[in-house]
Design goal:
It is a single chain. Helix content is 43%, strand content 15%. It has 447 residues and is α/β, with parallel strands linked by helices. The strands form 3 sheets. An 8-stranded mixed beta sheet has the order 1-9-13-6-2-5-3-4, sandwiched between helices. Strands 7, 8, 11 and 14 form a 4-stranded mixed beta sheet that branches. Strands 10-12 form a two-stranded antiparallel ribbon. The longest helix is centred in the middle third of the chain and has 22 residues. The radius of gyration is 22 Å and the shape is globular. The two termini are 43 Å apart.
Length: 447
């Protein structure tokens, strides 16, 4: 466990949750020393801008930063910052075109993302509708749509990059996938499968992401336990029928259906507290890496917390699984606006344009800003942190952490006290950032 675990607790609580604890105030730090500024200017690598249309020249530093890694995880401090989204899309393009990466994985619903994979590969469907069909306003943006259209153009020209999700917060389409698959390969079995899955189907979301008034969390422990047993029995039955089902379809179709059922079970496990969302997202990420084959190289897109190696975070499990084949990059900024749901206590008052509070004295962001470098990439690994020029990296120091929601009356809630090199491999710093442009919602009519 890192020596800074106690300081990291607010970061753990504040990722994408609706509430976070207020950290204990540390002693006031000194101003940024000139030797730290000089070190940053000598070691941070400047890049020209964030848009994915820019040439690759100034991203050559990524070759050494990523090396032979198979998994590159890209974070974001807020879910509503345009410049983070643009830069992550730009990095994706570089990694695909220059380093042989072939898969994009996002913090979005597992089965619904597969429809976007079909779009970027074949052009089937309407990209805006399918993007809305991920249910999250966070991804329904001009920047993400632009990235999707680049992926489509790349594949139309002979490329092979895929679009995948690893989240599991909406079980509706996952359950529907299972029933549709069984109807294709074993029609006589459909009534029994429906009966086994009905305990969650009745509480699941529809194609617009809406859940019924009655919620699974309120169904009662005995009902939930029996429901999980019923779904696990269907997993066992499908595995026993694997050979027959694969013959009637294909290995890929069988595995997608089976994983859909497991994703629905992950929803149950999250609701009852048996398995965290981050653990499930890590499992699903690893599942994709495995199923895409030994030559797969993937880019993971999620919040800074999720990609970090803090205990309990998705990135912690991915580090245990992939070791040095995983590179984790945080995104930071100092000032500007972002999109986020306005929150006061437990009250949420809609999606609004928010403004970052001033950086805290002694924060990592203050140090980064003191360098006066417009945009930069900084590798945190393998540094000698014993000198006055670098010891500040060991912190612990304040580090901003905003997810989907923001209470403008309590900006102190969104600062964590962390040791940055313990939880990230690199940082991309963009001093001033802009809000994402949210697109109008146009949901698919059915799963």
């Amino acid at each position: 466990m890192p020596r800074s675990t106690a300081f990291l607790l607010p970061f753990f609580l504040g990722a994408c949750a609706s509430e976070s604890s207020t950290p204990v105030q540390p002693p006031p730090p000194p101003s940024v020393p000139p030797e730290a500024v000089a070190w940053l200017r000598a070691n941070a690598v400047q890049f020209s801008g964030t848009h994915l249309s820019l040439p690759h020249t100034d991203l050559a530093v990524l070759r050494g930063l990523i090396g032979d890694a198979r998994v590159v995880a890209l974070g974001e401090n807020t879910h509503g910052t345009r410049d983070f989204f643009e830069m992550k899309a730009r990095i994706l393009r570089f990694l695909v075109e220059q380093m042989g990466f072939n898969a994009f994985l996002i913090e979005a619903t597992w089965p619904e993302s597969n429809r976007l994979d079909r779009y970027v590969r074949t052009g089937e469907g309407d990209s805006r509708t399918l993007l809305t069909g991920l249910y999250f306003w966070t991804w329904r943006t001009e920047s993400v749509l632009e990235m999707i259209e680049w992926m489509r153009s790349h594949n139309a020209a002979g490329g092979g990059v895929g679009f995948y999700g690893f989240d599991m917060q909406y079980p509706g389409m996952a359950l529907d996938n299972v029933i549709r698959y069984v109807a294709d390969v074993d029609p006589a079995r459909v009534p029994a499968t429906r009966t086994r899955l009905d305990c969650l189907v009745r509480y699941a979301n529809d194609a617009q992401g809406r859940f019924p008034t009655a919620r699974y969390v309120d169904a009662g422990a005995n009902f939930q336990r029996q429901c999980a047993d019923s779904m696990r029995a269907e997993v066992t039955r499908m595995l026993a029928s694997r050979a027959t089902y694969v013959t009637a379809s294909s290995v890929k179709e069988f595995e997608l259906a089976l994983q859909s059922l497991r994703v629905a079970l992950q929803y149950h496990s999250m609701i009852v507290g048996e398995q965290s969302r981050d653990r499930s997202m890590a499992i699903n990420t690893a599942w994709w890496v495995d199923h895409l084959g030994p030559d797969s190289k993937v880019v993971v897109w999620a919040h800074n917390f999720h990609v970090s190696t803090f205990p309990g975070a998705q990135g912690r499990w991915l580090r245990e699984r992939f070791g040095n084949e995983l590179v984790i990059v945080a995104f930071t900024h100092e000032f500007g606006d972002f999109m986020g749901v306005t929150q006061q206590g437990n009250t949420f008052t809609g999606l609004n344009r928010q403004t970052l509070d001033p950086v805290r004295t002694g924060s990592y962001e203050e140090y980064f800003g003191a360098s006066s470098i417009p945009h930069f990439i900084l590798d945190l690994r393998g540094r000698d942190l014993s000198s006055p020029a670098t010891s500040w990296l060991l912190g612990p120091r304040w580090f901003r952490s905003i997810g989907c929601c923001f209470d403008p009356t309590r900006p102190d809630r969104y600062w964590a006290y962390v040791v940055l090199p313990e939880i990230f491999d690199a940082v991309i710093h963009i001093p001033q950032t802009r809000p994402t442009t949210i697109l109008p919602a146009q949901y698919p009519s059915t799963f």
